[in-house]
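Give me the fold.
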Amino acid sequence: MRNVSIRKLLIGVVIVIALAVVLLRGDQFLELIATMQTGAVLPLVLAIVSQLGKYMAQAFAYAAAFKTVGEQRRPRDTLPLVFGSFFMNTIAPSLNTAGAMLVIDDSRRRGISTGRATSAALLMQMSIESGFLTIMIFGFIILQFAGKLDPVWFLVGLFVVFLVGGMAGIMVIGRKNPDAVVAFLTPIEKLVNRLSQRFRKGKEVAPWVKTLVESFSEAAGTIGHNPKKAAFVFLYSILASLCELACFCLVGVAFGLEVPSALIGGYVVATLFAMISITPQGVGFVEVATVTLLAAYGVSTAAGTAIALVYRGLVFWMPFAIGAVLIHRTKSFSGGGKSRRLQRGTVRDDRRLRAAETSPKPPAADPPSEEGAYDD
């Protein structure tokens, strides 16, 4: 009963936060509808299809990630996790950890061990960053040849490089020498905990470095034992990034922009600032950065603003609205623990165990006497 009350409270908080986001950015949503009416219809329709293709590719990537750790989950079952993770990362900005925790909790409630669920979530997160990193490097090369690569954007891009490299480094080194990684991160843990205690009025903060390193180490071991399965996770994530790139390009074409370097560069910059911004999904910062880059190519402020606004509408409002609906299909919000199939299996096992304990046992046979043992 207590769990039900907590879940209802959590759902209520999520709804309130979602409504707050809509009210605070509702003017942008209305402006989006008006702006889309001024663009070419066919490219915008294809842009919507392409963006939806991104989420389908991520659903297959999640399924491949769970397959890598030895669990079977179908893409249609992981699709709510894709939108639900986006929704949680929007209403609770936390460097994508809120979405990862949703994946882990949903999996745990379906009977998947926390270790395997964490490994799958880490593998998925790293593949998402790696997929964009691949597109980013290609985009920076194009911008460099076009003479439009701003040093500031390059420095921002290094953040993604360090992020992916850091995750990979912790996985590899943590697998071979976890104590060394723990010793390296312990000063950071102490600093973070000290700052956290100030805001939490002296409350103790549970150690997290050792648990983090163990999770990364386990994920590294899983990937090492299943490299071919893990490769599919990265391929699907790259496909997802390509679909989103196509979405940006089609939106640009809808408003008259047909310069390939500007389209690719605009997508890279928009995604970069969405990743590093302190606002949910980079709201406000992404639009300014995109208009600034397009202005370097001679695109008018009106056209650049229209492209940024429509693109952000497709990558922010559309998954946010779908996520608000589909998140209730996850076990974390729909309630319940393990699936019915697992529950029925557990009940059957319990019945068999009770039956074995209560059934009369046959009398033990008397050992042969010493005299009878030698009788012919």
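The two ends are 71 Å apart (CA to CA).
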